[in-house]
Amino acid sequence: MSLGEPLVELQAAPAGLDVEIRSVALLDPEDPPIAHPGELVLAIGARGRAAFPALRVAGRDGAAAVAVKLDTPGQAAALSETAVEAGVALLSVRGEARWDQVDAIARAALEDAPPGRAGEGMEEGDLFSLAQTTAILTGGIVSIEDTANRVLAYSRSADHDEVDDLRRLSILGWQGPEPYLAHLREWGVFQRLRTSDDVITIESHAELGIRRRLAVAIRSGDRQLGTIWVQEGSTPLTERSDQALLGAARVAALHLVRRRRELSADLTLTRTLTAGLLEGSTGPQPLASHLALDAFRPAAVLGFSYGAAEATGPELTRAEVTNLISVHTAARHRAALVTEADHRIYVLLPQLPRSIDIGTLRGWGQDIADAARRHLGLSLRGSVGCIVPGLGEVPESRREADRILDAMVHVDVSTTVAALPDIQAEVLVSEMLALITARPDMRDPRLTAVVAHDARHQGQLAESILAYLNAFGDVRAAAAQLHVHPNTLRYRIRRAEQLTGLDLSRPDQRLLAMLQLRLPPDA
């Protein structure tokens, strides 16, 4: 398996370079050190001496390697010594790199790796091996990107001085830097890649820190799937680089088509299992086994719904908002899962840190709602379900998220994203209203008569009673809210009592009126 520069650097390899890595694990700083045979352990947040326990446990349990970030170059010697004593390889990760990026690239390299020992051959779909082979055939430094300019795989380079700023920034940022992408658009490179199968040459630009490059589109029929880039190093590219690059693009196309099919099938299964868990029709184990999740770590559910007018919007809008939610939640929690059900979008957050709180999740939800308003012009309502101890209790968190969203529809709530403690009273009132709606026999017929009178005569008696009660009987305050004279309001209250026999001096009748008059007129 190869991560290569500029992401990681090998600091110690006491068992040599042929140790097989079979899986990748994230070690949360709050969890006790644990490892399994053949794992690459990403020690998040453990710097300097804080990484010693992870190294010792990894060596004891047979892990293949541990990756850490170094605060200072001087830490490498002490950590390397401990790694050698423990018998486990040590990798140092560049400080600018994101842990989720290292994790994703490591897993992608593992998924692409052919069975058996490294070096025994390359299967057709191995992107990292394909990048390395293309680098050998062209004499250059290779990266393979998708159509969004995200790096999918890249070749190793023994000489760091050969790597220009663009390649270094692209891999560290997992995407081409925007200023350079703007130059490529200006030079017409992307347009040519979209419309041509030819190898394109981009000359060096020393003022931009960019060396000469070749690029070719990865294509399936008329559809572009990605691009292969070859950067010239300290020596010129080989004479037949163009021919090698065309062949590599065709092999890469086979891989990406296959991967898309596999990802589509895998995504369908993941969504089915996620929806089943949220509904309570499927237990936690199928999803946990499918995605290698810890079913006994904290979890929670976020819920989102559109405004009433937007719920019937075009399919494109629904896809856009789902994608927006997916991107924002994935940026904050790598294991986040997004699915749709009953015109709502749910985010399942498994394997949450044990220290996380509702306030943090509310902040994530608010960021999503703000982004939807800013970028899509949509008004999202969001809810935060309770944090539960494991996947088995996820339906409880989903039910709480739904209770909150239901309340946001039926009662006046000032916030766009809420947890139950924020609007406990509003949720309970909403549920009482739902009960009264479903049970007409629980309604006071005198209040029903007031609403019916208003409907026949286009009156405002019901509205006036409710405003009066909401103002604790303060006639002037209620009249100001209704924009009428206080005497007009007094007349309406008397008129309602005379017509129906109501007696609003009685507390029980006032309480029932405050609830029943909140029902929509057609309830």
Percent of residues in helices comes to: 40-55%
Span of the ends, CA to CA = 63 Å
Shape: elongated
- Tell me the number of strands: 15
Q: Kindly report the name of the CATH homologous superfamily of the largest domain.
A: GAF domain
> What is the second-level CATH architecture of the largest domain?
2-Layer Sandwich
**CATH C-level name of the largest domain:** Alpha Beta
Strand percent estimate: 15-25%
Secondary structure tally, helices = 18
Using the coordinates shown, work out and report the CATH topology of the largest domain.
Beta-Lactamase
Number of domains: 4
In short:
The protein is of the alpha/beta class and 523 residues long. It has 18 helices and 15 strands. The protein has helices spanning 52-61, 75-86, 99-112, 127-138, 165-173, 178-186, 189-195, 241-279, 284-291, 315-332, 358-376, 394-410, 424-438, 445-457, 461-470, 475-482, 486-500, 507-516, and strands at residues 8-12, 23-27, 39-43, 65-69, 89-93, 141-146, 151-154, 200-202, 213-220, 223-231, 300-306, 337-341, 344-349, 380-384, 417-419.
